[in-house]
Design brief:
458 residues, alpha/beta, Arc Repressor Mutant, subunit A, Aspartate Aminotransferase, domain 1, Aspartate Aminotransferase, domain 2, eight-stranded mixed sheet, four-stranded antiparallel sheet, globular
Length: 458
């Protein structure tokens, strides 16, 4: 399959402060992730694509090389690159094995879509269509529907102590898109480096690099992200339920982080999603409450409702609003009816009721996983730590946790290797297992299978 003809759809849509190389890398990366460029598709030769885009061949060659190093592309000799058939960011590839529905789904940090309140959502959506159809005649607000921003300001203030004027809340099509827009706005303000917790999701590190910014991995200890030695223009931080450690930022560390931001003029980007359903301790007040002038608080529905409903939002310091607005001017708008439906879901109390029901389900599944791990891991001489609805199984240093995770996939058991969340190759070895999609009656059987897979690797 080839895209080498001049009619290829690939184009360059540069964002503010973005280089040609980063724009092309982002475009191709997004297309591969979305499935528009499927594994096995042959991309145009660098010379052909460069002529099509009107850029130098070096721009295309550099973008291809970056994607090859990240294993998005495969290159054989001097042939044009081919989209790789590898798993990307935990998503399944196209092999028959990865397409098969897992027998036991212990994937961490993934909500159960079957708990989605479909009846309440459809009712809210239908009410939005009937009651607010006239809104379609008005031009959309690039910052989001005013009614949703008002509801979110009240909700975030009530549940997390976020100091949020509705005018300072921006609605985005998704959590990932919100981070991209925010990074572009920060780049306009001179930000060149962003520190991230180590360990953390790879996705955020890739987004920072795609924005043309330098990633600064910062270690995490028992109190949260370590501030000593931190040198960056911004810090992406989790105040509640850090992934994959499950830690909350301690009060002392919160004060250190805020003090660091004020002293250095750095921005704090607070990830607030997911903690509502963590199954552990209550999230408590957001970091933004302590420094509303330095903290951007980020949230999304993909963690609390379902990945299908992917609206995101950010509460922006007043001094940063103009830069975000400038970036929004050229960005796609979020779905208006989805925004109105979410506003109704919050205002009627259905959103809170859904979270309470889901928390109860996740708590039972977490307890079942813990019981099974306690019963069976001892025979292997292994220990684990509970981190919300997830657990980290600690492996000896010589164990290859990524090989174990691949073996589990072949056995139709989904788990994650702990080392994949670290920036350094010298990372602790372990498995991160989740209970959000675990069915209580199958917990013992799932852990038994996992133990049989682990045993030969010890």
């Amino acid at each position: 399959m080839s895209l080498s003809s001049p009619e290829t759809w690939i184009s360059l849509d540069r964002r503010p402060g973005e280089t040609l190389r980063h724009a092309l890398r982002r475009t191709l990366c997004d297309a591969i992730r979305s499935g528009a460029l499927r594994p096995g598709v042959r991309l145009p030769a660098s010379r052909v694509l460069a002529a099509h885009l009107g850029v130098s061949r070096g721009v295309v060659s550099d973008a291809y090389e970056q994607l090859r190093s990240e294993r998005f592309l495969e290159v054989q000799g001097r042939s044009a690159p081919v989209v790789a058939g590898l798993r990307v960011q935990g998503r399944p590839g196209v092999s028959d094995q990865s397409r098969a529905r897992p027998r036991y789904d212990l994937a961490p940090a993934v909500p159960d879509a079957e708990l989605f309140p479909s009846k309440q959502w459809l009712g809210a959506y239908e009410a939005a269509v009937r009651g607010d159809a006239a809104v379609g005649w008005n031009p959309p607000d690039p910052c989001g529907e005013p009614i949703l921003r008002i509801e979110l300001a009240d909700y975030l203030g009530r549940t997390r102590g976020v100091i949020a004027d509705p005018e300072l809340i921006i609605i985005t099509p998704s959590s990932a898109r919100g981070v991209e827009l925010l990074l572009a706005a920060l780049a306009r303000r001179g930000v060149r480096s962003v520190a991230v917790e180590d360990p953390s999701h790879m996705e955020r590190r890739e987004q920072i690099r795609a924005a043309g910014l330098r990633v600064v991995p910062q270690p995490v200890d028992a109190e949260g992200v370590v501030v000593d030695g931190l040198e960056a223009d911004a810090l992406l931080v989790t105040s509640a339920h850090q992934f994959p450690t499950g830690l909350q930022l301690s009060e002392d560390r919160r004060r250190e982080v805020v003090r660091w931001a004020h002293c250095t003029g750095a921005w704090l980007l607070e990830q607030g999603s997911g903690s509502e359903l963590s199954g552990g301790a209550t999230p408590g007040r957001a970091l933004q409450h302590q420094a509303p002038g330095r903290v951007v608080h980020l949230g999304a529905t993909c963690h609390t409702l379902a990945p299908l409903i992917s609206l995101g939002w950010m509460t922006v310091p007043r001094s940063l609003v103009r830069d975000v607005h400038d970036v929004l001017a050229s960005a796609e708008a979020s779905g208006r009816l989805e925004q109105l439906a979410l506003a109704r879901l919050i205002s009627t109390g259905d959103y809170d009721r859904h979270l309470r029901r889901a928390r109860a389900v996740y708590r039972r599944r977490r307890d079942a996983l813990v019981t099974a791990l306690n019963d069976q891991l001892l025979d292997l001489g292994l220990r684990f730590d509970l981190v919300g609805t997830d657990a980290v199984i600690h492996l000896p240093p010589q164990a290859d946790d990524q090989a174990i995770a691949r073996a589990a996939t072949r056995a139709r058991l989904r788990v994650a290797a702990l080392s994949t969340f670290y920036a350094s190759s010298a990372s602790p070895k372990g498995l991160v297992v989740g209970s959000a999609r675990l069915r209580v009656p199958t917990a013992a059987a799932a852990v038994s299978l996992l133990c049989r897979i682990i045993a030969p690797h010890l």
